[in-house]
Specification:
The complex is a heterodimer of chains A (78) and B (218). Chain A is mainly α and 78 residues long. Chain A has one domain (3-75). In chain A, 77% of the residues lie in helices and 0% in strands. The longest helix of chain A has 19 residues, at 34-52. Chain B has helices at 4-11, 15-24, 28-50, 53-69, 80-99, 135-147, 151-162, 167-174, 178-200, 212-216. In chain B, α2 packs across α3 (28-50). Chain B has 2 domains: 15-99, RNA polymerase sigma factor, region 2, helix turn helix motif (Rna Polymerase Sigma Factor, Chain: A); 129-216, Orthogonal Bundle (Arc Repressor Mutant, subunit A). Chain B is elongated and about 65 Å long. The longest helix of chain B is centred in the first third of the chain and has 23 residues, at 28-50. The chains are: A mainly alpha (78), B mainly alpha (218).
Chain lengths: 78, 218
Amino acid sequence: MTCTEFIALLDDIIDDSVAAETRAEVEKHLHKCGHCEIVFNTTRKTIEIYRSHQIYELPNDLRDRLHAAIMTRCKKGC
Amino acid sequence: MPTIQSIAGQDEQHPDVALVERVRGGDVSAYDTLVRKYERQIFRIAQHITQNREDAEDVMQDAFLKAYEKLEQFQGNSKFYTWLVRIAVNESLMRLRKRRTGKMVSIDEDLETEEGTVPRDLADWAPNPEQNYTQAELGNILEKTIKGLPPGFKVVFELRDVQGLSTEDTAEALGLSVPAVKSRLLRARLQLRERLSRYFRKKPGSRQTSPKEARAEL
């Protein structure tokens, strides 16, 4: 497996949707290619950080205010 | 190839379907439940696209009101949430066009270049690099990092990786093809990784990253 082939499969590897045979090839490639190993680990970490530290969180008071405004208008038939 | 499990899954009724039916029957409290369930996610999508807090507030309200008004048009063959996201994305893009005085903004811009698919920054990161920053600093870094990406990349990343939607549902919600979602997701992931490297990379000769330089930029 080349680095280009590895990158083309990166999303499927991260999402764990590659066949067992391909996974074996991927692991073989990662074993000998430090660069791809870094790209793989840091991309996974990127997703993990964005998932666990959600940005643009809606503060509770604003959420309550917007929610109430929406529901008032819905009850009036918009 | 569809598995037996996924075929069985398609027959199961999504809990939103019952709520939508109740709303159609005149039960407004069922809509209250739907709004509460999805308001945070819709706000984030609007904020990603408009990059403006007030616009995101307006979009969130308008999207839920529009969905309520158009509920009769909602077809049960798509999920309520993907249908709602589509409304919110359209509202967000309209808002953005207004701000940019009519300049076309699309989630489907032709971005089919190879740019961003070849990783350049190959430095390794410190272990748990996010722990070198306070919550507020980390929030700033994450916002700043994702801000520069095209709207289509940001929303695909948000829906797929943060909110956990399938590729198919993301494609449906955004009116994109599955290959287009896949291509945007790969580039979004790689570009975010590359930009975050600036803050999280291991400094040569040190075991831990010293975030001083990166922090000075915040």
